[in-house]
Design a protein that fits this description.
Layout (H helix, E strand, L loop, with lengths): L5 E2 L10 E2 L9 H11 L9 H18 L12 H14 L3 H13 L14
Antiparallel strand pairs: 1-2
Helix pairs in contact: 3-4
Length: about 120
């Protein structure tokens, strides 16, 4: 990519433009793998993209209807645990309530895997 390539922020065209080479983005390993595959030309467009998007929207809607959240829970937990949950949710980019619901769902469906504790010294 040329260092002379410039990008205008969305919105007001009078705003300052940014040199795209100076914009830093942190990619996780999966995102990096996807970007590299794209740059190598390995990714192909799906035929009839609109139909595929509609199909996946239908699947997502059906899944959400099947798991309708219609039950409220009120629990007391240690402030330290709550703070840790909120930090973890921020790292994941999701609301902390969503993280808590996900952990509970994974637990009751047997998909929550406990990490093995390192051997204790002594």
């Amino acid at each position: 990519m040329s260092s002379s390539k410039r990008v205008s922020p969305v919105g007001n065209p009078r705003e300052t433009t940014y040199d795209i080479e100076k914009v830093l983005v942190t990619l996780d390993p999966e995102e990096k793998e996807i970007l590299e595959a794209f740059e190598r030309g390995e990714l192909k467009s799906v035929p009839n993209v609109e139909a595929e998007l509609a199909r996946y929207r239908q699947i997502a809607e059906s899944s959400m209807k099947a798991r309708k959240k219609d039950c409220r829970v009120n629990i007391r937990i240690a402030q330290q645990d709550m703070d840790a949950i909120k930090v973890r949710a921020l790292e994941e980019g999701i609301p902390y309530q969503t993280l808590m619901a996900s952990v509970l769902h994974k637990y009751v469906t047997g998909r929550l895997v406990e990490k093995a504790s390192p051997p204790q010294k002594g």
